[in-house]
Design goal:
Blueprint lengths: L29 E3 L2 H11 L8 E2 L2 H10 L14 E3 L1 H5 L6 E5 L5 E6 L2 E4 L2 H9 L7 H7 L4 E9 L12 H11 L4 E6 L5 H11 L4 E8 L9 H15 L5 E3 L2 E2 L7 H14 L3 E4 L14 H8 L6 E4 L3 E4 L4 E4 L10 E2 L3 H9 L11 H8 L9
């Protein structure tokens, strides 16, 4: 099993009374977290974002944005930041403690403020996403943040599990050991499973002891599958078609950042912290529109060569009529006119039109489950 990124699994969750951290004190300022930032805080605190112990200070932020490393040289591809408006920024000072409140206004943790700083949104967006175009959903989300960032270590009062399938890194590591898995491949998804996903996962399972399927659940685009549908469909698929002793299912409560190749590194590091030794990367990982080449998420691993988890690259997978099954470009000699590519977009469109997707693209049980769900897609 892999060591956590940075060599030690971060744990910033305490059982101590919040009052011991100044919560409730009249002179301790409060910072209200957005739903996205709240998820980031919990992922930092529970070790998914190891080695981060809090939100990035200025030098770490700039290094991550421009060089994909922290100031100490540790690979880290995406900025994990806490934004505040100008009024809140002027009320905060270094060496001050502030209470962190969840989106409902309830105290959930504290941050020991090291730095409050302004940042150039356009410059950072260009560096991280490769574009400053606000039609890019990741850029639009990033640039909608407030104008100041607060950096410093955090302490949270509860792990705030997403649901009963939320295996924290310390727990997944225990599970893998109990199962006797020395090698584990992680699979990241934001979709209900189609036949190409199944083919890729089972191909990877030939080389490792276990498969860890971890859908990314949280804020998505309108038209994406709902969190509930993704989880239910994966339970249906793995119960019916996978060896139960070789599969574990959890969730990754986090928003999609649509950062393409950088997000492939990020997602791999999260699975490294969960205990995975390998990570599946297909085409167009975390991409959106035409902003990234279909295999940019593969190519970046030539630049970032050793992050302590082995990428497993997969190309196009499809149903081939002459082969009479799911195959890939590497093993199929037939042309495009004899291939049926499982398209998530086409499957979603068919379901929206109350049309059953072809069984060559999606298992009928999965299609039935989705079609029988009242609201299978994100609507707002």
């Amino acid at each position: 099993m892999n060591e956590p990124h940075g060599g030690r699994l971060v744990d910033r969750v305490t059982d101590d009374d919040p009052e011991a951290f100044g919560v409730g004190s009249a002179d301790q300022p409060r910072i209200h977290l957005s739903p996205k930032t709240f998820k980031d805080a919990m992922n930092v605190a529970t070790g998914r974002f190891s080695p981060l112990k809090g939100f990035l200070t200025r030098n770490d932020f700039l290094k991550v944005a421009h060089d994909m490393t922290l100031e100490d040289g540790t690979v880290w591809p995406l900025p994990i930041v806490l934004d505040v408006d100008g009024e809140k920024a002027t009320s905060l000072e270094p060496d001050q403690r502030a209470t962190l409140c969840d989106p409902n206004g309830d105290p959930v943790g504290v941050i020991d403020v090291e730095e409050v700083y302004k940042y150039n949104k356009s410059e950072a967006a260009e560096a991280v996403f490769g574009t400053d175009d606000e039609d890019h959903p990741g850029v639009a989300s990033f640039k909608s943040r407030d104008d100041f960032l607060v950096g410093g270590p955090i302490t949270m009062f509860d792990p705030h599990r997403h649901n009963g399938h939320d295996l924290l890194p310390a727990e997944s590591r225990v599970l893998f050991r109990k199962k006797g898995w020395d090698t584990v491949v992680g699979f990241q998804t934001r979709n209900a499973p189609h036949r190409a996903h199944e083919y890729i996962q089972k191909s990877a399972m030939e080389f490792v002891d276990g498969l860890f399927v971890q859908p990314k659940l949280g804020d998505k685009k309108i038209g994406d599958y709902s969190d509930a549908v993704i989880m239910e469909s994966y339970r249906e698929l793995t119960d019916a078609y996978y060896p139960t002793g070789n599969v574990a299912l959890s969730v990754f409560p986090s928003q999609m950042r649509y950062a393409g190749p950088r997000e492939s590194i990020f997602d791999a590091l999260v699975r490294k912290n969960q205990g995975c030794t390998h990570f599946i990367i297909g085409r167009d990982h975390a991409g959106v529109g035409d902003y990234y080449d279909s295999f940019a998420a593969h190519d970046i691993f030539e630049e970032i060569t050793d992050i302590g988890i082995e990428p497993m690259f997969f190309s196009y997978s499809f149903f081939c009529e002459p082969c009479d099954g799911m195959v890939s470009e590497k093993i199929c000699p037939h042309g495009d006119d004899e291939r049926i590519y499982p398209s998530g977009t086409e499957i979603r469109e068919a379901i929206r039109n109350e049309e059953r997707p072809s069984e060559k693209m999606m298992r009928p049980e999965i299609a039935t489950l989705i079609m029988n769900t009242d609201e299978p897609f994100v609507t707002e």
